[in-house]
Amino acid sequence: MPSTSFPVLSKFPLGPPAAVCGSGESLGPAPPSGGSMKSAEEEHYSYAPSSISSVLPPGPAHPSLPAPCHDLQTSGPGMPAPAASQPPGYGGAVDTGPSSYFLSSGHIRPNGAPALESPRIEITSYLGMHHSNSQFFHDVEVEDVLPSSKRPPSTATLNLPNLEAYRDPSCLSPASSLSSRSCNSEASSYESNFSYPYASPQTSPWQSPCVSPKTTDPEEAFPRGLGACGLLSSPRHSPSTSPRTSVTEESWLGARTSRPSSPCNKRKYGLNGRQLSCSPHHSPTPSPHSSPRVSITDDTWLGNSTQYTSSAIVAAINALTTDNSLELDGVPVKARKTAPDHCPSVALKVEPAGEDLGTTPPTAEFLPEEFTSFQHIRKGAFCDQYLSVPQHPYQWARPRSPTSFASPSLPALDWQLPSRSGPYELRIEVQPKPHHRAHYETEGSRGAVKASAGGHPSVQLHGYLENEPLTLQLFIGTADDRLLRPHAFYQVHRITGKTVSTTSHEAILSNTKVLEIPLLPENNMRAIVDCAGILKLRNSDIELRKGETDIGRKNTRVRLVFRVHIPQPNGRTLSLQVASNPIECSQRSAQELPLVEKQSAASCPVLGGKKMVLSGHNFLQDSKVIFVEKAPDGHHIWETEAKLDRDLCKPNSLVLEIPPFRNQRITSPVQVSFYVCNGKRKRSQYQHFTYLPANAPTIKTEPTDDYEPALPCGPASQGLSPLPKSCYSQQLAMPPDPGSCLVPGFPPCPQRSTVVSLPPSAGPKMHDLSSTTYSKGMASPGHGHLGLQRPAGGLLAAQETPTPAGVHAGPPQQPPPALLRPQ
DNA sequence: AGCCTGGAACGAACT
DNA sequence: AAAGTTCGTTCCAGG
């Protein structure tokens, strides 16, 4: 079994990446651990930046960048993550995307995935596995899309060697955890599958592992996406499987007892360490994965997985050869770690991506697909490990909307996709509440995610005039600074019952549970999501996973990620994705941490003095608003507390006076951040804010929202759309209000980019990629970031680029790389 | 009897 | 190394 490989993988995590990266080495290897480890908090907040930036490629903050896409990153980099976060990169999600498109995308993946995953290892494994399985897809798909050239089947081998190297056990260290990304991988794999033709290959890798065993079936394809990897990863999936399983937990099992354990399990994040020892305990607990239940339960498990492979392999190989990949991997790792989600992988990827990007040059070479595949592969490896586990071959009937899944190569879940492309736009009409207490497996369901105003979130696909129903996919994604990816510690949970009016179907992709909801023409392609709850997996269980690098502690924010795959006349599939505003899933955090949902101003002249209104939750009479300017390395260059109008402060709103900037002579916009602080460790996420030269024309923000700000600071600030929370760091997360982000964007961009510290390479690549595709977007939006974040809003509109979806990085978070870059 | 929820206890992980 | 704090996870209890 793959298992063999697994072992290796596990090792990799740490080491491999670095190794792989080669370049990355520097990056990588280690860092991950350290840096990454930081508590989630840090990440959330800020620091990340520094650490991140420095260490990680993308840096948490900009997670977005990362991976996904080079593109994104590219863009991203600069970008503040925020925008980036989303989709960016890849925009094109479309499978088909023009190759160029893909390329970029590919890059993207690379990003994300790539690095992280310790890929190498996995790769190896994949190879074996994959080939068999995946290949189908790959081949098929690939052929379609790709030029033959790309595919190099041979891949496998070559890489392996390297891989091995990577694998060194030694590597394992914490970093390894990072590697965990496997999760990501999963996702990614999944994605990969779908996404591109190539993807398939890519995908395959991951899945393949799983897949193969499970299924080779074509159908899987669909599932595969889902299931395949996921299965693998499945640790979750299968109940037992769950990670821990993999861990061998069984052995461990004994450990747990009544309470799972967190205790035991808990490891210190800081270190890297997850200590194995602990893990055992944890593992015992079965749940870890709850996921298992998740996936398993339902139906889903497909086994599918399958597929990927060759192409993936090839890609991987290429990547390796290029080194790029390697680099990426290495570095990112840590950064990624942070990201917790299931898919830690994602994180990994991302970062890597970033790095990769840098490296990328190669990317250019690669087809996106390849990239992806590559990444996937890695992931796959992880998966495999997990895979071993369970797998049920589930098969569910596919949803009505076959289309979506139909394509074998749907983009991996960690790919960044645009929310709109051409005439189509996937938009969240009603956002979910910012707080939703997730339930543990040991608890009963805590119900479906609701909307702030009552009712439930709703999503609509605009511009689709066909009569064929489609499938809306929903999964739980991360909400940190890094690129959007499946969350390793949370899974979507299907809610059924009298109160649920929306039919849904569960599928598992790469360890990520995906809820499929029909989008019917008769409903104007709109779906009310009243069937989606959120399941919390025990940190210990997930962290034990082989590839997982993210830590669960304080990684309690998620986003609902919606995807739709639209069949195109040319046989290709256009994939769009949009992520909701961040949702705090921790009981405690939801009750204590201040949350900024909107800010009335995004920018203001250096003189300050203007008022800004923040709306959100958990504001206290003694809350403080701290403005911070960070250096590229994350260090705080300047920090000052804004004056609050206490009389106007309410639990849901704060009115403050924007403090003057430290340097009144700036000649170009300077991006800073601010956060609300209720106490030592009770801080909101960083919000972006931009200081404008005193005499500079104001920048108009686009207020996406309606928010009315009363105060816009100077001209610029008007818009108020609240920025996403962390533009900076988390920005990504916030797709919703993208608008806000936009604003900040400008200034930020420059800085950010630096901050982000993208790898040089990334830049270039990005451009290439993007150039083609994104160009428009950039232009109009002007601010890539903005565009990115915004879900669909104005910016997007601006983007009207004809280009395919891909192009548009649209999606909320991700900005097209291009945009970023430029700046 | 069972599902939801809100609260909070328990104990490990962090500071 | 010890003490206090922070959090994750499990339990309880009421609706």
UniProtKB/TrEMBL annotation:
<dbReference type="InterPro" id="IPR037059">
    <property type="entry name" value="RHD_DNA_bind_dom_sf"/>
</dbReference>
<dbReference type="InterPro" id="IPR032397">
    <property type="entry name" value="RHD_dimer"/>
</dbReference>
<feature type="region of interest" description="Disordered">
    <location>
        <begin position="202"/>
        <end position="298"/>
    </location>
</feature>
<feature type="compositionally biased region" description="Polar residues">
    <location>
        <begin position="202"/>
        <end position="215"/>
    </location>
</feature>
<feature type="domain" description="RHD">
    <location>
        <begin position="408"/>
        <end position="590"/>
    </location>
</feature>
<keyword id="KW-0804">Transcription</keyword>
<dbReference type="InterPro" id="IPR011539">
    <property type="entry name" value="RHD_DNA_bind_dom"/>
</dbReference>
<dbReference type="InterPro" id="IPR008366">
    <property type="entry name" value="NFAT"/>
</dbReference>
<dbReference type="Pfam" id="PF00554">
    <property type="entry name" value="RHD_DNA_bind"/>
</dbReference>
<dbReference type="InterPro" id="IPR002909">
    <property type="entry name" value="IPT_dom"/>
</dbReference>
<dbReference type="InterPro" id="IPR008967">
    <property type="entry name" value="p53-like_TF_DNA-bd_sf"/>
</dbReference>
<keyword id="KW-0238">DNA-binding</keyword>
<feature type="compositionally biased region" description="Pro residues">
    <location>
        <begin position="57"/>
        <end position="66"/>
    </location>
</feature>
<keyword id="KW-0805">Transcription regulation</keyword>
<protein>
    <submittedName>
        <fullName>Nuclear factor of activated T-cells, cytoplasmic 1 isoform X3</fullName>
    </submittedName>
</protein>
<feature type="region of interest" description="Disordered">
    <location>
        <begin position="757"/>
        <end position="823"/>
    </location>
</feature>
<dbReference type="Pfam" id="PF16179">
    <property type="entry name" value="RHD_dimer"/>
</dbReference>
<keyword id="KW-0597">Phosphoprotein</keyword>
<keyword id="KW-0963">Cytoplasm</keyword>
<feature type="region of interest" description="Disordered">
    <location>
        <begin position="20"/>
        <end position="96"/>
    </location>
</feature>
<dbReference type="InterPro" id="IPR013783">
    <property type="entry name" value="Ig-like_fold"/>
</dbReference>
<keyword id="KW-0539">Nucleus</keyword>
<feature type="compositionally biased region" description="Pro residues">
    <location>
        <begin position="812"/>
        <end position="823"/>
    </location>
</feature>
<dbReference type="InterPro" id="IPR014756">
    <property type="entry name" value="Ig_E-set"/>
</dbReference>
<feature type="compositionally biased region" description="Low complexity">
    <location>
        <begin position="233"/>
        <end position="251"/>
    </location>
</feature>
